[in-house]
C-alpha cells in the first residue's frame, strides 16, 4: 500500500535560519507531489507541485524553494526564514484523478 | 469572486444531529469534487470523491454535487463526537499532469455529546 512520510512533525527555527523539510512516498511510482501551507483563516495554499524528477512548478513567489532529487522524494527549503514563513506545511501526492493523499504535516514556528 | 467559497463556521451540533456542509464555486470547468476531513494538528484525509453531478453515499456520509448551481454538499447523518473536525471541500477540472485541486477554507464542526 502507498504511504507518505513527512518530517519533522514540529519545528521551531529562528528568523534567518535555513529550512529543510522532507517528504517521501512509498508504494507508488511517478507520483505528482505537492507542498501546501496552511495558515489559520487562510485555508490551504499550494506552494509547489512536481510531475517528475527535477520538474518543479512554483505557485506563489516567496522565500521558499522546492526540489525533487528522486522520484519519490520532495524537499521544501529556505535559505533564510522569515516570521511570515510560520505555518503548517503539508506534503501530498497523487497518481491520477481521485484525490490527494496528505502527509501528517510539519508545524513550523519561526521565532 | 473567489473560486471556492466555504462557510468557515464554526458549526456546533448535538450528537445524533444531521449535519450539512456546503461549498459554492465559480469555475464551471470543475468536474471532480472531494471532501476532506482534518483533525486538529493532522493532515487532511480524503472522505468522499465524486465526479460530475449526482449523489454518492458512504455509510453516514452523503456527498451531493449540483453543477448547474455550482454547489456541493456533504451530509453527515447520526453525527458522532468523533466527527468533530474541519471539513474541506476540494475540486478540480482535470486529471493528468495538470491535476491540481482548489480547496475551500474549511468548516470547523463540533459534535457535542
Describe the structure.
The complex is a heterodimer of chains A (about 110) and B (about 110). With about 110 residues, chain A is mostly beta strands. Chain A is built from no helices and 11 strands. In chain A, strand 5 and strand 6 form a beta hairpin. The radius of gyration of chain A is 13 Å and the shape is globular. In chain A, about 40% of the residues are buried. Chain B has no helices and 11 strands. Chain B has strands at about 5, 10-15, 20-25, 30-40, 45-50, 55-60, 60-65, 70-75, 85-90, 100-105, 105-110. Chain B has about 110 residues and is mainly β. Chain B is globular and about 40 Å long. The chains are: A mainly beta (about 110), B mainly beta (about 110). The interface of A and B includes residues 6, 41, 102, 105 and 107 of A.
Features:
heterodimer, A: 111 residues, mainly beta, 7-stranded mixed β-sheet, 4-stranded antiparallel β-sheet, globular, B: 113 residues, 6-stranded mixed β-sheet, 5-stranded antiparallel β-sheet
Q: What's a concise summary of this model?
A:
The complex is a heterodimer of chains A (111) and B (113). Chain A has 111 residues and is mainly beta.
Write the layout of secondary structure elements.
The complex is a heterodimer of chains A (111) and B (113).
Chain A: E1 3-7, E2 10-13, E3 19-26, E4 32-39, E5 43-52, E6 55-58, E7 65-70, E8 73-78, E9 87-94, E10 101-102, E11 106-110
Chain B: E1 4-6, E2 11-14, E3 19-25, E4 32-38, E5 45-51, E6 54-58, E7 61-66, E8 71-76, E9 85-92, E10 102-103, E11 107-112
Parallel strand pairs in B: 2-11
Antiparallel strand pairs in B: 1-3, 3-8, 4-5, 4-9, 6-7, 7-8, 9-10, 9-11
Amino acid at each position: 500500500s502507498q504511504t507518505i512520510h513527512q518530517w519533522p512533525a514540529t519545528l521551531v527555527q529562528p528568523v534567518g535560519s535555513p529550512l529543510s523539510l522532507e517528504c517521501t512516498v512509498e508504494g507508488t511510482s511517478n507520483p505528482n507531489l505537492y507542498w501546501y501551507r496552511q495558515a489559520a483563516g487562510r485555508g490551504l495554499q499550494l506552494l509547489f507541485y512536481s510531475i517528475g524528477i527535477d520538474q518543479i512548478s512554483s505557485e506563489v513567489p516567496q522565500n521558499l524553494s522546492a526540489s525533487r532529487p528522486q522520484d519519490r522524494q520532495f524537499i521544501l527549503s529556505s535559505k533564510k526564514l522569515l516570521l511570515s514563513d510560520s505555518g503548517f506545511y503539508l506534503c501530498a501526492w497523487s497518481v491520477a484523478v481521485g484525490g490527494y493523499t496528505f502527509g501528517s504535516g510539519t508545524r513550523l514556528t519561526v521565532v | 469572486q473567489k473560486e471556492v467559497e466555504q462557510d468557515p463556521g464554526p458549526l456546533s451540533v448535538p450528537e445524533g444531529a444531521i449535519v450539512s456542509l456546503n461549498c459554492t464555486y465559480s469555475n464551471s470547468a470543475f468536474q471532480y469534487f472531494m471532501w476532506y476531513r482534518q483533525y486538529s494538528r493532522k493532515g487532511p484525509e480524503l472522505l468522499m470523491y465524486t465526479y460530475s453531478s449526482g449523489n454518492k453515499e458512504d455509510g453516514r456520509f452523503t456527498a451531493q454535487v449540483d453543477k448547474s448551481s455550482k454547489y456541493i454538499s456533504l451530509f453527515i447523518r447520526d453525527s458522532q463526537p468523533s466527527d468533530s473536525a474541519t471539513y474541506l471541500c476540494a475540486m478540480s477540472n482535470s486529471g493528468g499532469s495538470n491535476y491540481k485541486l482548489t480547496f475551500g477554507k474549511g468548516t470547523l464542526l463540533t459534535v457535542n455529546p
